[in-house]
Amino acid sequence: MTSQFDHDPFAAAIDWDSEAIIQRRNRFYSASQRAFVPYATPLIFQRGQDQYLWDEKGKKYLDCLSQNLCISVGYNNPVVTRAVQKQAETLQHCTTMFFHPVPAHFAEELVNVMPQGEDWVVHFMNSGAEAIDFALLLARSHSGNADVISLANSYHGATFGAQSVTGIGGFRHNVPLLSGIQFTPCPDQYRGIHGAVVEPYLDDLDRTIHYGTSGHLAGMFIEPIQGYGGIIPLPEGYISGAFERVRAAGGICIVDEVQAGFARTGENFWSFEAHDVVPDVVVMAKGIGNGYPLGAVVAKREIAESMANKFYFNTYGANPVSCSAGRAVLHVIQEHGLQVNAKKVGAQLMRVLLKLKDKHDIIGDVRGRGLMMALELVKDRLSRAPATEEMARLFELTRKHGLVASKSGAYRNVLRI
Length: 417
Ligand SMILES: Cc1ncc(COP(=O)(O)O)c(C=O)c1O
What we know:
This protein is α/β, with parallel strands linked by helices. A hairpin with a 2-residue loop joins strand 1 and strand 2. The protein has 13 helices and 17 strands. It is globular, with a radius of gyration of 22 Å. The protein binds pyridoxal-5'-phosphate (PLP). The site of pyridoxal-5'-phosphate (PLP) has 15 residues, from helix 6. Pyridoxal-5'-phosphate binds next to helix 6.
């Protein structure tokens, strides 16, 4: 593959030798960034096009993970690539103390895909965790309350604030995280403590508020479909019931659409829309930028106004190159019917996975919405004991057969597709 940069005398050399890549990374990455290697041997990627990836030796893979749900409109999507190139050639950055039309256009376009009838405003940042941190600060600033509720088995990011509202032990570091955060049981219909019901989980939330907080809430964080938790769609009635309780206690309702947003779930543009609710704050990242660093918090104006008197900025928030990528992504999703596609292909995938479940007892559960699917392996269907080792073997086999997916869930026995 040649590109216009191959003959650039200033182009930095790239060593594509597999062993050299592994050794250099192991030698120069810090332990915290080295730690996460899902396969028995490292998988190196060189190139992506549409839904395919190629490793450094030229082997082709069907990518069913999208770099952890970031690639929403395909690798090297020509509309996105061109938009980024054009902006990068014109002005690479414009900090928010100066004005630039691109982020403002994008803010308007994002507001247009939010539920109508509300006065939404946008704050841009660079990542999901930054957006979660901001939402936490906003909830506390707006309500004047400190107590926050989050769901067990949730993932909201790795910064101090985001980690503090993350309910998966494996992602929490052994240090004092933020105080004032209580976890309530997740209404997981397959593995949850009450099984496939809704009301008992809402009763748990009542108890969490009553016993674990002052009774005055800042807010609650909810992923309508838990991602790293193992693709756990929250059941009908839970989110609306939770919203009622949180608002009655003075808090705001924050939905995390970092994985499930941007039409991925097929039926709706936002996953919360399947629950007939309107959140107060929506956190988004990943699919918003198709791989370019971008995150946003979209909030009701009267809530966002609570922070009018305090300066808050991330240097690269509202960067025009990232926002150009975001505009192009939104355009492609809307103009190329990707939501309908997610619904159609997701339904086909669901049919195939359910057939596999009929055939293989080791598949305990198949679940998801649109193009956010999972199959969970169990030792036997009665005890539902997680088949973690079997999943590790299956996972290596998917790689061998040219498929990229993820092993997720609290027991790493869920194939996240
Ligand atoms: C649901 C959810 N929220 C927040 C985050 C944090 O996003 P980031 O990794 O961009 O900080 C993630 C990341 O995986 C996520 O899955």
